[in-house]
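Notebook entry, structure prediction.
Reason for the run: the old model in the group folder had no record of what sequence produced it. Starting over properly, with the input documented here first.
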Amino acid sequence: MNLSMVTDLYELSMANGYQQTIPDEEGIFDIFYRRVPDNGSFVVTAGLAQAIDAVADFHFEKTDLAYLDSLHLFTEKFLLFLKDFHFSGEMTAVPEGTPIFPREPILTVRGPLIQVQLFETLLLSIINHESLIATKARRITYAAQGRPIMEFGARRAQGPMSATFGARAAIIGGCASTSNLLTAKLFDVPSAGTMAHSWIEAFPSELAAFEKWAELYPDNCALLVDTYDVINSGVPNAIKVFGDLVKQGHQPIGIRIDSGDIAHLAKIARQQLDAAGFEKAKITASNALDETTIQSLLLNEKAPIDNFGIGEKLITSASDPVLSGVYKLVAVVHDGHLVPKIKISDSREKVTLPGLKKVYRLYNKQTHEAFADVITLADEEISANSQISVRSADPLDTRQHSFLRDFDFKALQTTIFDQGKPVYTSPTVKEIQAACRSALKELPEESKRLSNPNKYPVYISEELAQLQDQLIGVD
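New structure, fully documented this time:
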């Protein structure tokens, strides 16, 4: 599907206007966010691979142009420009799976203003959605303390595309598998699933349903035990079938509980399974779970659960379903000179960071733990042996000025497009997931906790701060 028409009308209206007024102006836009969902401290970036594909394939079909012409808003010259559209600019971005903090540029696009204005809606819809779900998955997998999370959300997602790319993002954020076969096929990730209650109900008895399933899938036998009565029917019937499987030389996987008091039922089911000799049979819990319920089940109730299947609360990020990433003009290039731009607001926290920028992550030389990020102007250079003067990126911080010294560092952005050509090869989803896990290990533990995480310091260089002050009009 051609996604170029997934845009807001005003994007094309502005581009049409640029062509008639400032046709040679070049623009630079940043994608960033100000607030972390669920009161967390960071967002896990995702969606870059889809963003690259969208920009590389950005074009307008004959039917698109005919529709736009019918609106009687655009000049013939502009429609001809759309007919032959080809991105000629540059893009840099933070790789997928990277934890990113408020106000840091996730993605920067530079090119003719008439071109880069057109990407706003499409890029935001991709980056905001996938980063939101990856971030939620990170929270859920953190709560599970290493227990596998199966993404089960397709039927609750806001449409097939959200189901497919949301599951991809969930894997990036730490999920072990997905029930969505299209996601598993497209991105070569593990698929998983048991059965629905309809399978049980379709047979004369629960035992008959279990026996037939074991006959069909002897090496993939995970049984749903809560259709009728977990303790008095489901688990005893599962134990009988597991016994038959073992006699035939197969090892049962376990049971799934999808309703009721899961902690209570899991404890009794564990006792029943162990008493029957099935200590290795796993217990999977599902049923509208999220990080809060998982943490309660494991920490407060000590429920003996081995895996979790998470659906609607993950695929929709139900507790906080919006990542409000924005696409802001930060500079124009006029007559060959870069002119920084700024959005000023009565709310200081909404004032943007002007100019073309870089983001660095700083590390303690002894522990190799990340201790701060610094946003600088693109032409600034920092070195590990220097002392740098910085200000907090959060304008509401009471302590604004700091000095940083004696650190290791790395730049977070990488080049994606150069002169309109893709120069970056996206890693596989499994590789992105591994990179995400590695990046998360670098962060302080207190910044990763689910409730009241400690604020991770993000600074702006003194040069960037002075430029912002100058554009705001601060003396």
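Summary: The CA atoms of residues 369 and 442 lie 5 Å apart.
The old model has been moved to the deprecated folder.
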